[in-house]
Design goal:
Length: 345
């Protein structure tokens, strides 16, 4: 699959853009484990124009994570055009992605993100003008429609393509569904089978296992799959999916010890990133806590810990931990409990 001259290989698997999740530290880890392309957290166009520090940090790109996409969102043409130009000139990403899919109220309720599905003409105007404003490829991520009575994606996909985008990611839910229920891939497949569509179609929603990724390619014919929430607490998922797609077998080299070491490395990387990010802050404890707060949600939701009896108390402790040492002790405790379960079985 190619987006302009960016070759992502056969059956690429992409890391979805996720707010407060896909910072540079996490992107680099997922890239190491086989993600074909990674996406930034979404960035507010208005915040970029105002040069808000946090937004500027979000668009920082390291060459080792390429190809990388920066995703922006907004609700009017002028701000989106200006933000797109800022991203291109300051970050030099390989791709600029427009978010027309975020369902959260603070975004969609103000008309941005998936809120644009209620004003498709404005969505198309923004897309058309952003494509004109930059030299790099522009892509779009959106949903099936606003609600179940307004699933407009098949027609909308053609219209977005006509605006000049070079790939389209479709999440298989409507905005009203948020993240509830199962993702519906049937319309994603219909878009892909439309003979008038010639840009790559990327499917997103409920890809949690290697088998599900393989099925998405086989059943719906998508050009790529995008994985989001399933990466929480298991960035190595990309390694297993890639192995399975290439060989038909799971990766059996990822032992429990190896996975625990990865989680600890994720903690260290998140803390190091936080320390580097907050240059104005002199107190190490506060900046270290920033990294801990960012990563502990990943650890608490790791699939590694599913099946451990009465794990809720440990999960709460993970979510409240404030130092690396606390997190490492809790991870060691969880590892011992997993090994105990394996021995008893």
């Amino acid at each position: 699959m190619k987006i302009r001259d960016i070759n992502l290989g056969d059956k690429p698997v992409l890391l979805a853009p996720m707010e407060d999740v896909t910072d540079q530290a996490f992107r680099l880890l997922c890239k190491e484990f086989g993600a074909s392309m990674v996406y930034s957290e979404f960035v507010s166009a208005d915040a970029l124009i105002r040069s808000v520090n946090r937004s500027l940090e979000k668009i920082r790109v390291d060459d080792s994570e390429r190809p990388v996409a920066i995703q922006i969102y907004g609700r009017d043409v002028p701000s989106m055009v200006e933000a797109a130009q800022i991203v291109e000139s300051e970050a030099h990403p390989d791709i600029l992605d427009i978010n027309f899919g975020c369902p959260v109220k603070k975004v969609a309720g103000k008309g941005a993100g998936s809120g644009m599905l209620r004003t498709p003409e404005l969505m198309l105007d923004i897309t058309r003008e952003v494509v004109k404003a930059v030299q790099i490829p522009v892509t779009v991520k959106t949903r099936l429609g606003w609600d179940c009575q307004n699933k407009i994606i098949v027609e909308l996909a053609e219209q977005l393509q006509d605006c000049g985008i070079e790939a389209l990611t479709i999440h298989g839910r409507t905005r009203s569904q948020m993240y509830q229920g199962e993702a519906d891939w049937t319309l994603i497949g219909e878009v892909k089978r439309n003979p008038r569509m010639h840009i790559p179609i990327i499917g997103n929603g409920d890809i949690c296992t290697a088998e599900q990724a393989a099925n998405a390619f086989e059943q719906y014919g998508v050009d790529a799959v995008m994985i989001g929430r399933a990466t929480f607490g298991q960035p190595w998922l990309f390694k297993d999916v890639r192995t399975y797609l290439d060989t038909g077998k799971h990766d059996d080299t990822m032992t429990l010890d190896w996975k625990m070491d990865v989680l600890k490395r994720q903690v260290r990387t998140s803390v190091a990133y936080s320390l580097r990010e907050d240059n104005a802050l002199k107190e190490r404890k506060r900046t270290e806590l920033g990294g801990i707060m960012h990563v502990r949600r990943h650890l608490a939701n790791s699939p590694l810990f599913k099946g451990i009896p009465d794990f809720r108390q440990t999960r709460v402790k993970i979510l409240r931990a404030e130092t690396q040492e606390e997190l490492f002790e809790l991870l060691d405790e969880a590892k011992q409990r997993i090994e105990g379960l394996e021995l008893n079985n």
